[in-house]
Automatic annotation (TrEMBL):
SUPFAM superfamilies: NAD(P)-binding Rossmann-fold domains
A Gene Ontology cellular-component term: endoplasmic reticulum
Record's protein name: HSD17B12
Signal peptide: none
Source organism phylogeny: Eukaryota, Metazoa, Spiralia, Lophotrochozoa, Bryozoa
Length: 322
C-alpha cells in the first residue's frame, strides 16, 4: 500500500514536471508567433506611422542619399525633404540628378545639392569629402546599389565575371564603407544622427545572383556590427532589407520575360512602388535596427524563413539551366 502510494506520487510528480515543461514550451511558441505575426508588424507599420518618430530636422540640416536620383534612393530623398531636410544626392548621371533636384526644390522648397560621380571608380571619395565640407549632416542613406545584369545567372554564367564582380563590390560595399567613414565621425561627435544601409532580402543567399547577394550580406553584417558597436552613441544605425521594389534596377535584372513563374507570382503579389516603399521605411527609423521597409516585404521575409531553401534552389536552377 505504502509502496503503491509513493509510486503514484512519483508518477504524478514526473507528470506535472513534463506538463510544466510542455506549458512553458507552448507559451514560448505562442508568444513568438504573436510577436512575429501581430505585434512586430503592428508596431513597425502602423504605430510607427501614426506616432511621432525621430525628429529628423533636429539631427542636422542635411541628409545625404547615395543613388538618390532614382528608385528607392529618390523615394528616401523625397520623404526626407518632405520632413524639411536639405538633400545632398550622389549618383552617376547629371540629367537624372538635375531632374530630381528640380523636383525636390519645387515640391518641398528645401536646399538641394548634387554630386555626379561613378561609384565603380574608387577615386571619387576625395571629391565627395570636398563636397561634404562644412555640411551639418544628420542623416546618411547608403542606398546606391547595382547587380550583375541578370537575376537568373549562376556564378560562372555572369557576363564578364571579373569586371562585373569588381563593379558590384565597389558600388555596393566600398561605397557604404567609405561613406560611413566620411560621415560617422561627425555624427559621433554630435552624439546624434541616422545611418541607413540598404541591403536586400536576397542577402541570405540567392542563387540567381550570387555576387549581388553576397555583397548585400556584407552590407547587413557590417551594418549589424556597427549598430552593436555604437549602440549607446546616440547615432541610430538601421539595416533595411527590401523585397521586390519596382525600379530600373529591378526591371533590368528580372524583367526580360525570363523570370521563373514563382518569381513572377512573387512580383505580382509582393512588389511595391519605390516611393511607397521609402516612405514606409523612413517611418521605421528609430523603431527597429533591422527592417524590411514595408508590411508586404516583412511578411515575405517571414515566409522566406519558414520556406525551404532546397525547394527554391531547385526550382531556380531548373529554370536557369533550361
Ligand atoms: N529594386 C529592388 O527590388 C531592390 C530589392 C532589394 C534591394 N534593393 C537595393 O536598393 C537599392 C536601390 O535600388 P533601386 O532599385 O532603387 O536602384 P535604381 O532604381 O537602379 O537606382 C539606383 C540609383 O543609384 C545610382 N547609381 C547606380 N549605379 C551607380 C554608380 N555606379 N555610381 C553612382 N550612382 C549610381 C543611380 O543613378 P544614375 O541614374 O545616375 O545611374 C540611381 O540614382 C540598391 O542598393 C539595391 O540593391 C533593391
Ligand atoms: C533586359 O533588357 C534590358 C533592355 O533591353 C537590358 O539592358 C538588360 O541587360 C536585359 N537584362 C537581361 C537580364 O537580359
Ligand atoms: C552601415 O552602417 C554603419 C553605420 O555606422 C556604417 O558605419 C557601416 O559602414 C555601414 N555598412 C557598410 C556596409 O558600410
Ligand atoms: C502576373 O501579372 C501579369 C499582369 O497582370 C499577368 O499577365 C501574369 O499572368 C501574372 N503572372 C502570374 C504568375 O500570376
Amino acid at each position: 500500500m505504502e509502496c503503491l502510494y509513493t509510486e503514484s506520487i512519483e508518477y504524478i510528480q514526473s507528470f506535472s514536471l513534463l506538463g510544466v515543461i510542455g506549458l512553458v514550451a507552448v507559451t514560448y511558441s505562442l508568444i513568438n508567433i504573436i510577436n512575429t505575426l501581430l505585434w512586430t508588424p503592428f508596431k513597425l507599420f502602423l504605430l510607427a506611422r501614426v506616432l511621432p518618430g525621430v525628429d529628423f530636422r533636429q539631427l542636422g540640416k542635411w541628409a545625404v542619399v547615395t543613388g538618390g536620383s532614382d528608385g528607392i534612393g529618390r523615394g528616401y530623398a523625397r520623404s526626407l525633404a518632405k520632413r524639411g531636410m536639405n538633400i545632398l544626392m550622389i549618383s552617376k548621371y547629371h540629367e537624372n540628378l538635375h531632374r530630381t533636384e528640380q523636383e525636390l526644390r519645387r515640391e518641398y522648397g528645401v536646399d538641394v545639392k548634387s554630386v555626379a560621380v561613378d561609384f565603380t571608380n574608387t577615386e571619387v571619395y576625395e571629391t565627395i569629402r570636398h563636397e561634404l565640407q562644412g555640411l551639418d549632416v544628420g542623416v546618411l542613406i547608403n542606398n546606391v546599389g547595382t547587380g550583375t545584369g541578370s537575376a537568373f545567372q549562376t556564378f560562372l554564367q555572369i557576363n564578364n565575371l571579373l569586371q562585373s564582380t569588381t563593379d558590384v563590390l565597389r558600388v555596393n560595399c566600398i561605397s557604404m564603407t567609405n561613406m560611413c567613414a566620411l560621415i560617422l565621425p561627425q555624427m559621433l561627435e554630435k552624439r546624434k544622427g541616422v545611418i541607413v544601409n540598404i541591403s536586400s532580402i536576397g542577402q541570405s543567399g540567392y542563387l540567381g545572383s550570387p555576387v549581388y547577394s553576397a555583397s548585400k550580406s556584407y552590407v547587413s553584417r557590417l551594418s549589424d556590427c556597427l549598430q552593436r558597436t555604437y549602440r549607446n552613441s546616440g547615432v541610430i544605425i538601421q539595416t533595411v532589407e527590401p523585397g521586390i521594389v519596382m525600379t530600373d534596377l529591378y526591371m533590368s535584372e528580372y524583367e526580360n520575360g525570363t523570370a521563373p513563374k514563382f518569381l513572377e507570382t512573387a512580383k505580382n503579389y509582393t512588389s511595391v512602388a519605390a516611393e511607397d516603399f521609402a516612405s514606409s521605411a523612413v517611418n521605421t527609423i528609430g523603431w527597429t535596427g533591422i527592417s524590411n521597409g514595408c508590411l508586404k516585404h516583412y511578411f515575405v521575409s517571414v515566409l522566406a524563413k519558414i520556406g525551404s531553401q532546397k525547394t527554391i534552389d531547385k526550382k531556380l536552377l531548373d529554370v536557369i539551366n533550361n
